[in-house]
Known about the structure:
With 541 residues, this protein is of the alpha+beta class. The chain has helices at 2-35, 77-82, 228-257, 265-281, 296-320, 336-360, 372-410, 419-455, 469-491, 501-505, 530-540, and strands spanning 40-46, 48-51, 90-96, 110-119, 131-141, 149-159, 162-163, 178-179, 182-187, 194-200, 215-226, 459-462, 465-468. A hairpin with a 7-residue loop joins strand 5 and strand 6. The relative contact order is 0.13. It is found in: Golgi apparatus membrane.
Amino acid sequence: MAGAIIENMSTRKLCIVGGILLVLQVIAFLVGGLIAPSPTTAVPYMSVKCIDVRKNHHRAKWLMPWGPNHCKKLKDFDEAVSRQIEANDIVFAVHIPLPSKEMSPWFQFMLFIMQLDIAFKMDNDLKENAEITLDVSLAYRDDMFDDWEEIAHAIEIRKLKCTFGSPKTVESEGRHYDCDFLPFMEIGSVAHKYYLINIRLPVNDRKGINVGIGEIKDIRLVGIHQNGGFTKVWFAMKTFLTPSILIIMVWYWRRITLMTRAPVLLEKVIFALGISMTFINIPVEWFSIGFDWTWMLLFGDIRQGIFYAMLLSFWIIFCGEHMMDQNERNRLSGYWKQVGPIAVGSFCLFIFDMCERGVQLKNPFYSIWTTEVGTELAMAFIIVAGICLCLYFLFLCFMVFQVFRNISGKQSSLPAMSKARRLHYEGLIFRFKFMMLITLACAAMTVIFFIVSQVTEGHWKWGDITIQVNSAFFTGIYGMWNLYVFALMFLYAPSHKNYGEDQSNGDLGVNSGEELQLTTTITHVDGPTEVYKLARKEAQE
Length: 541
C-alpha cells in the first residue's frame, strides 16, 4: 500500500511539472508571436552612378550618392558614352541607410546581396561562365558632417549565373538577363550610424578583367539586418533564462555532491548539457550595444555548435545507460563509436565556419562560395558533416529500439512481484518512456516550426491579431530547449528520501534506504537501483 501511495504521488508530481513546463512553452511561443516583431528586415538599395575623374582614382575621397557633398552623377551609360567617360571612371555609390534614417547597434548585423541589371547587346554579349571583378570599399561615420573612415577595401571576383529567355537577336537588344543574386557583404555588428559603399568595375582588356560581362545597367543591393524590437525581446529572454538554468544547475549538482558515491556518467552528461545551455544563454550580446564586436556572429555559431554537439551526445548516452543488458556502462569510452561521428561532424562545421565568417572578420566582402576551390572545400566539409549526422542517427535509432525492446522484455517479470513493487517499477519504466517521448516531441517541433517558418509569409493574421511566425519559431524553440534541459536536471536529480526500514522490507520488497528515482541508471547512494539489478540478474541467467 505504501508503495502504491508513493508511486501515485510521484506520478502526480510528474504531471504537475509537465503542466507547468507546457504553460511556459506556450508563453515562449506567444512572446515571439505576439510581442516581438519580425526577426529581420530587408531593405532594397539602388546604387548611384558617380563620376570619378581624379588621376589614379585615389581612395581617400569617398563619393556620396546624395547629400550636400554628393558626387557628379550619371543618368545612364549612354550619357557616359556621349561624354566620353570611361568605365574606370564610374563608381557605384550606396549610402546605408536610406535618407533621413540611421542605423543602430540593436540591428546586430548587416548582410548584403547583390543583383546586377545586365542588358543584352549583340556587340557586348555575356560570355558563358563569366566572372565580374569588383573593387569595393566600405566606410563609416557617426555624424553627417564627419569625414568617412574606411572599414575595409577588397578586390573580389564573383561568378555570373544568368539566363536569357529570348533569342539573342537584334530585336532582343536592351532586354535584361535573369541573373542570380550574388553574395556581397556580411558584417557582424552595426556600431555606427552611417555606412558608405563605393563599387568600381575596373576594366583591363589586356588582362581580360571585366571583359565579356555584358552591358551592366545598374547595381542593386538588398540589405538584411535584425530588427531592433526583436533584438530587445531576444536579449530579455536570455537575461531571464540565464539565472533560471544557473539556479537549477547549482541545485542539481548540490544534490549529486551530497551522495556518498561519485557522480555517474549520465549525471555528468546532464550537468555538461546544462553548462552548454548556460553558455548559449549568457547575454554577452548586451556588450555589442556599446562595443564594435564584429566577431559576435562567429561566437554565436560556436556556442550553438557546442550545445547541439552536447545534446546529441546526451541522447546517445541517455539511451545507452538505460540498456539494461549492456556490460559496459558508466564509461564514456564505451560510446566512442556513437560519439565519434558527432565530434568529426562538429569539427568539419567549425572549420567551414572559420573559413567563412572567420575570414569575414578581416574582409567582410569575402565569401567561400565565390571560387571553385572554396566551393569544393565547403561542400566537402558539409558532405562529411552530413555523413556523420546520418551515421549518428542510425546509431541512435538502433539504440532506442534496443532500449524499448529490453524494457518490454523486463516487463514480463513484473507480474511475479508484489503489487506495490510492481507499481514502483512500472512507474520507473513509464518515466523513461515519458522522457523519450518528450525528446522526440522537442526534435519534431524544431523541424516542424523550421519548415513552417520557411514556407509561410512570415506572419499569420487572425482578425486584428498578427502572429509573427518566424519570431515565434526563434523564441519558442529557444525556450523549448531551455525547458528541456531544466526538466532533465529536475527529474534526474538524485533523491535523498528514505522511506524507512519497514516500508523497504515490506510492501516495496527492496533494500533499506532505496530511493524512488526517475532513472534506471545508478542513482542510489550505495549502488545500482533495483530495476538495473533485476535486469542484470535475468541477463546473466
